[in-house]
Design brief:
alpha/beta, Rossmann fold, 12 strands, binds magnesium ion, binds adenosine-5'-triphosphate
Amino acid sequence: MIQIQNLQVRAGEKDILKWVTLDFELGKNYCLLGKNGSGKSTLSSVLMGHPKYEVTGGMATITSPQPSPSKGEGEATNLLEMWPDERSKSGVFLSFQNVPEIVWVKLSEYLRTIYNIAMKKDKTDFKDISPFIFKRFIKKHLEELDIDGKFLDRDLNVWFSGGEKRKIEILQMKLIEPKYIILDEIDSGLDLDAFKTVATMLKSMSNEHNSIIIITHYFTILDYIDVDKVFVIKEGEIVKEGWKELAKEISEKGFEGI
Ligand SMILES: Nc1ncnc2c1ncn2[C@@H]1O[C@H](COP(=O)(O)OP(=O)(O)OP(=O)(O)O)[C@@H](O)[C@H]1O
Ligand SMILES: [Mg+2]
């Protein structure tokens, strides 16, 4: 479980998150709604450890569901003190609203690296998969997502279209099977077919061992992924919690009165 209590966050001169308290439990899906500029991306970036943000108060912890000899079962670890790669290894994954482009990092090598690291988490004796075998292994995933194999030889996200970047995000999730999957507007910029592919893949990935956290301004994605809880954030504070009916109400009436 990820538990966030009274989280306060500043960037530059601005106090962006003022009072955020919420939990994400494995086996449940969530939706975070709020107007533009309310703090949704800030919250997701802070959970992932983006250095741009300064945590000025409150806490966020992550509890491992696995019994671990050194920590004991279910001991909470301070998420905010972990490096981003440790957070990732603990199962936190963020699909960025603005997906970064990284030159000189070939997509195939990036995917192979994260796959090898993810596999070693569970199997310490796992031997790195070779580039040749990996290219064969990844083929079925590329086909499922309708991604051209030629992309593997390109630099990570460089000159990829918005929709192509989104699909690569899904591909990463398929490879590393994160526990806490934060999707910051993954449904924006997709054509109808790409949206269906992405939403269907996400639906198939949802299970009792993970938690999907959807940030969206469109609500169609909620027809694919069942959410257990909806949070509404306004000016850096969680102002309302509810069930999926709350998302429906907001999709019809907007944020007026919330
Ligand atoms: N480094 C920064 N310095 C100053 N203000 C910032 C900084 N980063 C973000 N902000 C401000 O913090 C507020 C929250 O931004 P955030 O990106 O979290 O909003 P959001 O809820 O994700 O909005 P949207 O729905 O438009 O994506 C905005 O007013 C934004 O301009
Ligand atoms: Mg945002």
